[in-house]
Amino acid sequence: MNHTTKLSVNINKIATLRNSRGGNNPNVVKAAIDAQRFGADGVTVHPRPDERHIRYSDVREIKPIITTEFNIEGNCSEQKFIDLVLETKPHQVTLVPDALNQITSDHGWNTIEHQDYLKQIVSVFKNAGIRVSLFVDPVVEMVAAAATTGTDRIELYTEGYATAFLQNREKAVAPYVAAAEKARELGLGLNAGHDLDLNNLQYFKQHIPWLDEVSIGHALIADALYLGYENTIQLYKRQLQ
Ligand SMILES: CC(=O)[C@@H](O)[C@H](O)COP(=O)(O)O
Ligand SMILES: NCC(=O)COP(=O)(O)O
After folding, report:
1. pTM here?
2. What domain range is 211 assigned to?
3. What was the ipTM of the complex prediction?
Protein backbone atom coordinates (compact mmCIF):
# COMPACT_ATOMS: atom_id res chain seq x y z
CA MET A 1 0.00 0.00 0.00
CA ASN A 2 1.14 3.54 -0.76
CA HIS A 3 2.40 5.62 2.17
CA THR A 4 0.19 8.70 2.52
CA THR A 5 2.04 11.98 2.27
CA LYS A 6 0.01 14.81 3.75
CA LEU A 7 -0.27 18.18 2.08
CA SER A 8 -0.20 21.08 4.55
CA VAL A 9 -0.99 24.42 2.90
CA ASN A 10 1.12 27.31 4.16
CA ILE A 11 -1.13 30.39 4.16
CA ASN A 12 1.56 32.99 4.96
CA LYS A 13 1.31 34.47 1.46
CA ILE A 14 -2.44 35.08 1.87
CA ALA A 15 -1.56 37.16 4.93
CA THR A 16 1.18 38.99 3.00
CA LEU A 17 -1.39 40.07 0.40
CA ARG A 18 -3.85 41.13 3.09
CA ASN A 19 -1.21 43.14 4.94
CA SER A 20 -0.21 45.05 1.81
CA ARG A 21 -3.49 47.03 2.06
CA GLY A 22 -4.54 46.79 5.68
CA GLY A 23 -8.09 45.57 6.19
CA ASN A 24 -9.05 41.91 5.98
CA ASN A 25 -9.00 40.99 2.31
CA PRO A 26 -8.12 38.22 1.63
CA ASN A 27 -9.27 36.71 4.90
CA VAL A 28 -6.70 34.26 6.28
CA VAL A 29 -9.20 32.43 8.48
CA LYS A 30 -11.34 31.77 5.41
CA ALA A 31 -8.22 30.69 3.51
CA ALA A 32 -7.52 28.12 6.25
CA ILE A 33 -11.12 26.87 6.28
CA ASP A 34 -11.17 26.61 2.49
CA ALA A 35 -7.79 24.86 2.27
CA GLN A 36 -9.29 22.09 4.42
CA ARG A 37 -12.62 22.14 2.52
CA PHE A 38 -10.72 21.78 -0.78
CA GLY A 39 -8.80 18.71 0.38
CA ALA A 40 -5.65 19.86 2.16
CA ASP A 41 -4.58 17.59 5.02
CA GLY A 42 -3.38 20.46 7.13
CA VAL A 43 -2.62 24.16 7.47
CA THR A 44 0.81 25.66 8.14
CA VAL A 45 1.59 29.14 9.42
CA HIS A 46 4.98 30.69 10.04
CA PRO A 47 4.70 33.76 12.26
CA ARG A 48 7.82 35.91 12.36
CA PRO A 49 8.67 38.49 15.04
CA ASP A 50 7.84 41.46 12.75
CA GLU A 51 4.46 39.88 11.84
CA ARG A 52 4.91 40.94 8.23
CA HIS A 53 2.69 38.08 7.09
CA ILE A 54 0.88 35.81 9.57
CA ARG A 55 0.23 37.68 12.82
CA TYR A 56 0.22 36.13 16.26
CA SER A 57 -3.47 37.08 16.51
CA ASP A 58 -4.17 35.18 13.24
CA VAL A 59 -2.66 32.04 14.75
CA ARG A 60 -4.99 32.34 17.76
CA GLU A 61 -8.00 32.85 15.47
CA ILE A 62 -7.11 29.99 13.14
CA LYS A 63 -6.47 27.30 15.75
CA PRO A 64 -10.14 26.72 16.72
CA ILE A 65 -11.28 26.30 13.10
CA ILE A 66 -8.70 23.64 12.24
CA THR A 67 -10.33 20.28 11.56
CA THR A 68 -7.26 18.69 9.96
CA GLU A 69 -3.70 19.24 11.16
CA PHE A 70 -2.22 22.53 12.36
CA ASN A 71 1.52 23.12 11.97
CA ILE A 72 3.17 26.22 13.39
CA GLU A 73 6.66 26.94 12.11
CA GLY A 74 9.04 29.45 13.57
CA ASN A 75 12.06 30.50 15.51
CA CYS A 76 12.02 29.20 19.06
CA SER A 77 14.66 31.69 20.24
CA GLU A 78 11.76 34.12 20.65
CA GLN A 79 9.91 33.62 23.95
CA LYS A 80 6.84 35.10 22.25
CA PHE A 81 6.87 32.21 19.77
CA ILE A 82 7.25 29.58 22.49
CA ASP A 83 4.36 31.11 24.46
CA LEU A 84 2.14 31.22 21.35
CA VAL A 85 2.77 27.56 20.56
CA LEU A 86 2.19 26.42 24.14
CA GLU A 87 -1.01 28.46 24.31
CA THR A 88 -2.48 27.34 20.96
CA LYS A 89 -1.24 23.74 21.12
CA PRO A 90 -0.98 22.87 17.41
CA HIS A 91 -0.58 19.24 16.34
CA GLN A 92 2.98 20.03 15.30
CA VAL A 93 5.59 22.71 15.82
CA THR A 94 8.39 22.99 13.28
CA LEU A 95 11.45 24.71 14.71
CA VAL A 96 13.33 26.83 12.18
CA PRO A 97 16.61 28.68 12.91
CA ASP A 98 15.61 31.94 11.19
CA ALA A 99 17.61 35.08 11.82
CA LEU A 100 15.71 38.28 12.53
CA ASN A 101 14.46 40.07 9.39
CA GLN A 102 15.20 37.15 7.10
CA ILE A 103 13.07 37.36 3.93
CA THR A 104 12.39 33.66 4.18
CA SER A 105 13.97 30.60 5.78
CA ASP A 106 17.27 29.76 4.14
CA HIS A 107 19.00 27.08 6.23
CA GLY A 108 18.38 24.23 8.60
CA TRP A 109 19.61 23.70 12.16
CA ASN A 110 23.17 22.77 12.91
CA THR A 111 21.95 19.95 15.13
CA ILE A 112 25.48 19.09 16.29
CA GLU A 113 26.42 22.58 17.47
CA HIS A 114 23.00 23.26 19.02
CA GLN A 115 22.44 19.76 20.41
CA ASP A 116 22.01 20.77 24.06
CA TYR A 117 19.71 23.68 23.29
CA LEU A 118 17.60 21.56 20.93
CA LYS A 119 17.25 18.75 23.49
CA GLN A 120 15.92 21.26 25.98
CA ILE A 121 13.51 23.07 23.66
CA VAL A 122 12.22 19.87 22.03
CA SER A 123 11.29 18.58 25.49
CA VAL A 124 9.40 21.80 26.31
CA PHE A 125 7.01 21.19 23.40
CA LYS A 126 6.87 17.41 23.73
CA ASN A 127 5.96 17.71 27.41
CA ALA A 128 3.01 19.84 26.28
CA GLY A 129 1.88 17.03 23.95
CA ILE A 130 2.95 18.81 20.75
CA ARG A 131 4.75 16.86 18.02
CA VAL A 132 8.09 18.45 17.15
CA SER A 133 9.83 18.66 13.80
CA LEU A 134 13.29 20.20 13.22
CA PHE A 135 14.08 22.01 9.98
CA VAL A 136 17.35 20.55 8.64
CA ASP A 137 19.50 20.60 5.53
CA PRO A 138 19.84 17.31 3.64
CA VAL A 139 23.03 16.30 5.44
CA VAL A 140 23.21 12.82 6.96
CA GLU A 141 25.21 14.01 10.02
CA MET A 142 22.61 16.70 10.76
CA VAL A 143 19.82 14.14 10.55
CA ALA A 144 21.68 11.76 12.88
CA ALA A 145 22.22 14.54 15.44
CA ALA A 146 18.57 15.60 15.10
CA ALA A 147 17.53 12.12 16.25
CA THR A 148 19.43 12.45 19.54
CA THR A 149 17.57 15.67 20.42
CA GLY A 150 14.39 13.63 20.93
CA THR A 151 12.53 15.29 18.05
CA ASP A 152 9.68 13.31 16.50
CA ARG A 153 10.37 14.40 12.95
CA ILE A 154 12.64 16.41 10.73
CA GLU A 155 11.63 18.68 7.88
CA LEU A 156 14.10 18.60 5.00
CA TYR A 157 14.76 22.11 3.65
CA THR A 158 14.11 21.66 -0.06
CA GLU A 159 15.20 24.94 -1.66
CA GLY A 160 18.45 23.30 -2.81
CA TYR A 161 16.46 20.50 -4.40
CA ALA A 162 14.10 22.90 -6.17
CA THR A 163 16.96 24.93 -7.63
CA ALA A 164 19.11 21.98 -8.71
CA PHE A 165 16.08 20.11 -10.10
CA LEU A 166 16.01 22.53 -13.05
CA GLN A 167 19.50 21.39 -14.15
CA ASN A 168 19.73 17.73 -13.10
CA ARG A 169 16.90 16.12 -11.17
CA GLU A 170 18.77 12.90 -10.29
CA LYS A 171 21.64 14.83 -8.77
CA ALA A 172 19.21 17.20 -7.07
CA VAL A 173 17.32 14.49 -5.21
CA ALA A 174 20.32 12.31 -4.23
CA PRO A 175 21.28 14.08 -0.95
CA TYR A 176 17.61 14.15 0.06
CA VAL A 177 17.25 10.41 -0.47
CA ALA A 178 20.37 9.79 1.65
CA ALA A 179 19.09 12.10 4.42
CA ALA A 180 15.62 10.54 4.26
CA GLU A 181 17.08 7.03 4.50
CA LYS A 182 19.02 8.04 7.59
CA ALA A 183 15.85 9.49 9.11
CA ARG A 184 13.95 6.27 8.42
CA GLU A 185 16.78 4.16 9.87
CA LEU A 186 16.67 6.25 13.07
CA GLY A 187 12.89 6.13 13.37
CA LEU A 188 12.31 9.81 12.64
CA GLY A 189 9.17 10.98 10.87
CA LEU A 190 9.88 12.90 7.69
CA ASN A 191 8.53 16.20 6.39
CA ALA A 192 9.81 18.42 3.59
CA GLY A 193 9.26 21.95 2.42
CA HIS A 194 10.41 25.14 0.75
CA ASP A 195 10.01 25.92 -2.94
CA LEU A 196 8.24 22.66 -3.70
CA ASP A 197 5.94 23.14 -6.68
CA LEU A 198 3.88 21.41 -9.36
CA ASN A 199 7.03 20.66 -11.40
CA ASN A 200 9.27 19.17 -8.74
CA LEU A 201 6.92 17.63 -6.15
CA GLN A 202 6.02 14.35 -7.84
CA TYR A 203 9.67 13.43 -8.51
CA PHE A 204 10.54 14.12 -4.87
CA LYS A 205 7.70 11.90 -3.62
CA GLN A 206 8.58 9.13 -6.09
CA HIS A 207 12.14 8.99 -4.73
CA ILE A 208 11.15 9.31 -1.07
CA PRO A 209 7.81 7.50 -0.91
CA TRP A 210 7.90 7.27 2.91
CA LEU A 211 7.60 11.05 3.21
CA ASP A 212 4.99 11.92 5.88
CA GLU A 213 4.15 15.51 5.01
CA VAL A 214 4.98 18.44 2.76
CA SER A 215 4.17 22.06 3.61
CA ILE A 216 3.78 24.25 0.56
CA GLY A 217 2.92 27.93 0.37
CA HIS A 218 4.61 30.26 -2.08
CA ALA A 219 4.18 28.29 -5.31
CA LEU A 220 0.78 26.90 -4.36
CA ILE A 221 -0.71 30.33 -3.64
CA ALA A 222 0.87 31.72 -6.84
CA ASP A 223 -0.59 28.83 -8.87
CA ALA A 224 -4.00 29.45 -7.30
CA LEU A 225 -4.11 32.87 -9.00
CA TYR A 226 -4.24 31.16 -12.38
CA LEU A 227 -5.75 27.78 -11.58
CA GLY A 228 -8.09 28.53 -8.68
CA TYR A 229 -7.54 27.63 -5.03
CA GLU A 230 -9.57 24.40 -4.97
CA ASN A 231 -8.22 23.09 -8.26
CA THR A 232 -4.64 23.92 -7.24
CA ILE A 233 -4.90 22.05 -3.94
CA GLN A 234 -6.26 19.05 -5.82
CA LEU A 235 -3.42 19.25 -8.37
CA TYR A 236 -0.81 19.26 -5.59
CA LYS A 237 -2.55 16.35 -3.85
CA ARG A 238 -2.37 14.38 -7.09
CA GLN A 239 1.42 14.81 -7.24
CA LEU A 240 1.65 12.99 -3.91
CA GLN A 241 -0.29 9.87 -4.93
C1 LIG B 1 10.33 26.95 6.98
C2 LIG B 1 10.23 27.21 5.57
O3 LIG B 1 10.64 26.46 4.79
C4 LIG B 1 9.73 28.40 4.95
O5 LIG B 1 9.44 28.02 3.67
C6 LIG B 1 8.62 29.20 5.42
O7 LIG B 1 7.78 28.56 6.28
C8 LIG B 1 7.88 29.81 4.29
O9 LIG B 1 7.31 30.93 4.75
P10 LIG B 1 7.36 32.26 3.85
O11 LIG B 1 6.68 31.93 2.56
O12 LIG B 1 6.59 33.17 4.66
O13 LIG B 1 8.75 32.66 3.64
N1 LIG C 1 7.91 24.57 5.51
C2 LIG C 1 7.84 25.08 4.21
C3 LIG C 1 6.60 25.83 3.99
O4 LIG C 1 5.75 25.89 4.85
C5 LIG C 1 6.32 26.49 2.72
O6 LIG C 1 7.44 26.87 1.99
P7 LIG C 1 7.18 27.57 0.57
O8 LIG C 1 6.34 26.62 -0.26
O9 LIG C 1 6.43 28.84 0.84
O10 LIG C 1 8.55 27.78 -0.01
Report:
1. 0.97
2. 6-239
3. 0.95
